[in-house]
Each structure stands twice: as structure tokens, then as C-alpha cells.
Amino acid sequence: IFKFLGAISVDLGKDRIKPYLPTILTPLYRELNSTYAEQDPTLKNLAQEIIELLKKLVGLEVFSLAFSSVQKQANQKRAMRKKQRALQTVANPDIAARRKMKRHKNKAETRKRKIEFLRPTYKAKRPRSHALKDLAMVE
Q1: Residue 119, H or E segment
Q2: Which residues form the U3 small nucleolar RNA-associated protein 20 C-terminal domain (predicted)?
């Protein structure tokens, strides 16, 4: 898709690409700022190359305006999701408690996995299943 976006950008030219610039930059920005563990470095390099191509194509000033608007929009979405999560914690405490228990359970599993990796002779006890009953609230 990134190659397609680059090809379309070059094909449309300097003047006709300007209205579509934020739409094109959104996935590129998302790829550059992603913090996933299993991120593909070739994809990140490709996104960077296409951004450089767009910068040369439309000029630094127009590109900077479009890129800053994409950044601003992404930050607003992130803040809104964070706010929604906080509101959901207050509105639905049972769902929030379940999510918190699941997160703590995953954290413990990760810790056990890291210990086993660092010390292969050590075997941590593991739960038998990861069913929903494991996440049930204890009274």
C-alpha cells in the first residue's frame, strides 16, 4: 500500500496531490510512530522513503503543514481514547476490574517467561488453562 501511495503521489503531481496529502500521510505517520514489538524495519524504511519523496514533491512548507495536522489529529485521537478508558473505569467498574485482572495475569505470565528464558533450569508453575473462568472476580 505504501508503494501504491508513493506511485499515486508521483502520478498526480505537485498541484493535484495537495488535497490528498493528509490522507496519504496518515498511514505513513502511524507506521513511523508505532511501538509494536514485532515491527518490520523494511516497512518503516519504506514509509520514511515515501515521506522524503512527498517532501521533495510538494515542498517543505506544504508538507510540514499537512504533517503537523496529521500529528495533531493522531494525538487528539489518542487523548480521546485515553479519556474514554478513564470514563469507562468510573462508569463500568466491573469491566475495568476484569480488564485489570487480565492485565495483571498477563504480566505475571510475561515475568515467568522472562525468568525461564534467563534461567533455563528454572520452571515456573503455569495455570492449566486461560479460560474465562480464570478471569472471574473472586468474592
Answers
A1: none
A2: 1-116
Yes or no: say if 28 and 2 are a contact pair by the CB < 8 Å rule: yes
Per-state percent for the chain, helix, strand, coil, to nearest 5: 80, 0, 20
Q: How many CA atoms lie within 13 A of 42 on its CB side?
A: 1
Over its length of 139 residues, how does the chain's per-residue pLDDT go in tens digits? 999 999 999 999 888 999 999 999 999 999 988 877 677 888 889 999 999 999 999 999 999 999 999 999 999 999 999 999 889 888 998 998 999 999 999 999 999 888 888 887 777 666 666 666 656 655 4
Between CA 70 and CA 2 the distance in angstroms is 17
Determine contact, residues 63/55, Cβ cutoff 8 Å: yes
Cα 54 from chain centre: 23
